[in-house]
Amino acid sequence: MRKNIVAGNWKMNMTYQDGLALVSEITNMVADETLAANVEVVLAPPAPFLHSIGKLLVAGGPIHLGAQNCHQKESGAYTGEVSAKQLHSVGVEYVILGHSERRQYFREDDELLSQKLKAVLAAGLKPIFCIGESLETREADETFEYLAAQLQNGLFHLSNEEFAQVVVAYEPIWAIGTGKTATSQQAQEVHAFIREQIARAYDAEAALNTTILYGGSANAQNARELFSQPDVDGGLIGGASLKSRDFTEIIKSF
Ligand code: 13P
């Protein structure tokens, strides 16, 4: 059966010192509350902090390490880039791919994301693959066609075995960092649609086993309602993952 996951995407926030303090607070709270039984927690700090933060996390414990991006090649002359293999070597387990900020600001398209997915899987890491529509697309009533195409072109080229490693995140662009969350009905409707698409592309079992996260202004106040939806298996949290109390409240929302 699929896992529930709450993942914190720090984006380009926090200094190293602030990050260490945050991790230590989260680690204490997660341990105190012994909440971890039915939730896997993922922290995705900026790349320079990964190694040290990874060392603070207990192996086999509830908190896992994630990266926010990686390069599609295994190694070589790609100044400034980090490979999936390198991430794996410092204890990373998950890699966020296809975030709308990377699609928009770094022109990442389906072709490039396909290569990155392959690289992440080849390194033994699990992709958190993001999809989501803009406000324009939603208002034009084209959300479902748009998401179906993102899944088809970006993700469904994977084999059954590869796809079994994937976590999908639905992040409507209009909800990211705007304080405007999708209603739980909107989230459920899309998540059920994504699961249906997975069943068509693979099979019913793959669809049942895939964790589908919601992201976009999720916070301590709305997480419980969102996570109570049958097809919402957790969240990919931006702003609220930078405050230990808020993030822990979200984890407790299951
Ligand atoms: P916010 O939670 O800040 O809206 O960000 C969501 C997000 O983009 C997570 O990847």
TrEMBL record:
Enzyme class of the recorded protein, top EC level: isomerase
Primary residence: cytoplasm
Pathway note: Carbohydrate degradation; glycolysis; D-glyceraldehyde 3-phosphate from glycerone phosphate: step 1/1; Carbohydrate biosynthesis; gluconeogenesis
Reaction catalysis annotation: D-glyceraldehyde 3-phosphate = dihydroxyacetone phosphate
Pfam families from the UniProt entry: TIM
Binding site for substrate: 9-11, 177, 217, 238-239
BP GO annotations: gluconeogenesis; glyceraldehyde-3-phosphate biosynthetic process; glycerol catabolic process; glycolytic process
Enzyme Commission identifier(s): 5.3.1.1
Residues the record marks as active site: 99 (electrophile), 171 (proton acceptor)
Cellular localization per UniProt: Cytoplasm
Molecular function via GO: triose-phosphate isomerase activity
A GO cellular component entry from the record: cytosol
Protein role: Involved in the gluconeogenesis. Catalyzes stereospecifically the conversion of dihydroxyacetone phosphate (DHAP) to D-glyceraldehyde-3-phosphate (G3P).
Family recorded in the similarity comment: Belongs to the triosephosphate isomerase family.
Subunit structure: Homodimer.
HAMAP family the record matches: TIM_B
Protein name listed in UniProt: Triosephosphate isomerase
Name of the gene this protein is made from: tpiA
